[in-house]
Structure formats: C-alpha cells, structure tokens
Amino acid sequence: MSFLDVLLGRKHAPLVGLDISSSSVKLVELGQNAAGEYVVERFATESFEKGWIADGQIEKFDEVADAVRRVVVKSGTRTKHVAMAMPQSAVITKKIMLPAGLREEELEVQVESEANQYIPFSLDEVSLDFCVVGPSPTSAGDVEVLIAASRKDRVQDRQGLAEAAGLKPVVLDIESYASRLAVGRLITTLPNEGRDSLVALFEIGAETTSLKVLRDDELLYDRDQAFGGSQLTQLISRQYGFSFEEAEQKKLAGDLPEDYEQSILTPFVDSLSQEIGRALQYFFTSTPHHKVHYVMLAGGSAALPGLKERVTEQTGFASMVVNPFDGMKLGSSVRESKLRREAPSYLTACGLAMRRFLQ
Predict the structure, then answer these.
(1) 12 φ/ψ angles, rounded to the nearest 5 degrees
(2) How far is CA 239 from CA 33, 123, 228, 233, in A?
(3) How far apart are the C-alpha atoms of 188 and 165, rounded to whole Å?
(4) 3-class DSSP state of 146
(5) In the beta sheet, which residues pair with residue 94?
(6) What SS3 state is found at 89?
(7) What is the rounded distance in angstroms from the CA atom of residue 299 to the CA atom of residue 205?
C-alpha cells in the first residue's frame, strides 16, 4: 500500500471507509445505483474508552483492534478492502514546483531530494508519497506536486489495526482531506453550486475542534482548538457522579435526569457557540477576510439541540448541521432515523468511503 495512494488517481475495488478518532471507530460503506447515485450500504460505530488513543497515538493497540473487529461485525460488511486516514498532526505535507514532463522515476528522485529539506527525520524512517496536482498556477512549464510523509511506525500502527480485524488497507489518506472530500459534495448543493462562497467548516471532535475555511476547493485557513464534546461528558460525570464511560453512554442514549438540559446542556451549548464565534474572529483578524457565507457544523456534538441556532445568533452567519449522506439513497439494511441522528459524526468516514469512486 502506498501512502496517499488514492491521490495518485488509482481506482480501487469496493472498500469501506474506516475513521479512527480519539473517541471511536466509524465505518461507512457506499455503493452506487444504476443512475450513478451514491447508496449508503452500511454504517456503524464503536466507542473507545478514554486514553486508548491520545494525541493521535494508539496507546492501547489490542483494545482498539478489538473495537475495529466489533465495528466490522456490527456493520455486516463483507468487504475486506479499507480506506483509512492519518491524523493531520501525524503527516507533513508540502507543495513543490517541478518541471512538467518528467518521467515517474525522475519525479521520484526530485521528490526525495526536495523532501530532505522539509522532513525533520531520516527518509528511512518515513513513508513518503507524492502526486501531481496539476499545472503550476504561477510558473509556466512547471507542475504542482504534493508531497506527504509520515513516520513509518505511525503508518504501520494504522495498517496493523486493519489487518488485526481481517481487513486489507489499500488507501491511506489524511483525515482533513477525507472530510473535505465529503463536504465538497455538499457545498456544490448550495446556491450557485457554492462557487466563490467562503465556507467555515467546524468539526467538533471529542477533544479538539478544527476550523477549516474553504473556497472553491481551496483551503484558505486551518486551525485546531482545544475544546470538544468530551467536555460535556465530563460535566455530566461531575454533576451526576457517573464514571466518564457511563456519562458518555447516557449522553449518547439521551438517558439523563430532568434538570440536564437547563443545568448542563444549555450552558455548554452557549459556551461552545462562543468558542466557535471566537475561532471565526481569529480567522478574520489573521486574514484579509471579514465574513463567511456559511458555517457548517460536523462531528459528534454538531447536532446538540440549539447549537446551530446559537451559532447563527453568535456569529450572524447562516449555520447548518452537516449530513454527509444528504442526497444519497439508503440500502435495505440502513435505519434512516439512526443514520440521520448520527450523520454529522460520519463526515470523515464518508469521505474515506467515497474514495472508491474516484477515477
């Protein structure tokens, strides 16, 4: 398997998208019908205990591998090929310009020579890949080449998890690229197909929330902040005396005392929307931009009651909760109500599953 294999434009057999985050593993399998529409065939999730994965590092390999096995069984998939992703923090990417018309072997030599300047490890210690993005926008006769590198041990950990679950990793992507692929499909459904629109995508994870500002497939801004859904779980745990795991289960199941909404949920939603407002202000003060056209909310906490409305009030910009499956058909084994409820947390997994259909 080549790192960033998918970006080289190779077509793969049916595969599942497997998103491994700090709090869970999510699986998505997509098909296509005769009309060329996406069909959601399978989706499933398994939670991790706190500390199994920390800062993108797998701390409890056997426990995470068991959870991956369980999610495969739960989903009912028979597909063995899998697309996975590395956390952005574990990957170094760099765009370089090279002369057009080089043969593959010549490109490899040039890329390795350039990579030595940008990668703070010996090339023996990294998995390195590259792809030609297209003609250089600034330099006639050159092409833009994207280099991606990650430490081999980090890559092997991800591969090992798949193999321990009986899966064959054929695509290793970067999480942010996968989520951008999935959200890009949704942006094209906006007025004027989203052209020239500044879209602020907030992915609210368990520990961190990332803001990406996109315009016409271009990433203008990318920043992570240390707040996320696990803070709500901690508040529930402290207020009611549950363990962290119990609090997380009850939060997901909606099985909480009557005063939960007033005493915990509403203040947390207020706090989260303020953080989102602050993140946007930081974007405005550090770039020439002073507004966005849309705020998109993804991740497990995106669908919290009242969050979308509070973000609109806080920022003054139209806000929406992302459903990466919007406009897709549903396979016979998919429960629509469950899918709709959990959809915002499947953005990256859905983007990985979409890799199957890239030419």
Answers:
(1) -115, 160
(2) 49, 50, 18, 10
(3) 36
(4) strand
(5) 147
(6) helix
(7) 6
Tokens of 141: 């006769």
Non-local CB neighbours of 24 within 8 Å, separated by 6+ positions? 45, 46, 47, 48, 67, 345
For the record, the structure tokens of 296 come out as: 């998109």
The first and second tokens of residue 341, run together, are 């409820």
How large is the C-alpha radius of gyration of the chain?
21
Q: Give 219's strand partners.
A: 214
Question: Three-state DSSP class for 237?
Answer: helix
Q: Using the 8-state DSSP alphabet, how is residue 132 labeled?
A: E
Specify which residues 139 forms β-bridges with.
Answer: none
Of 357, 327, 330, 352, residue with least CA distance to 17: 352
**Distance between CA 2 and CA 77 in Å, rounded?**
24
d(CA 119, CA 114): 9
d(CA 187, CA 183): 6
- Residues contacting 113, CB < 8 A, separation 6+: none
What is the rounded distance in angstroms from the CA atom of residue 210 to the CA atom of residue 276? 10
- Amino acid identity at 76: G
Residue written as token pair 């509070």 = 310
Residue 230 CA to residue 301 CA, distance in Å, equals 9
pTM of the model: 0.89
C-alpha span between 36 and 118 (Å, rounded): 41
Q: What is the pLDDT of residues 5-21, one digit of tens each?
A: 444 344 447 899 999 99
Q: Any idea what DSSP says for residue 357?
A: G
Question: What are the pLDDT digits (tens) for 162-218?
Answer: 999 999 998 889 899 999 999 999 999 999 999 999 999 999 999 899 999 999 988
Pairing of strands 168-174, 81-86: parallel
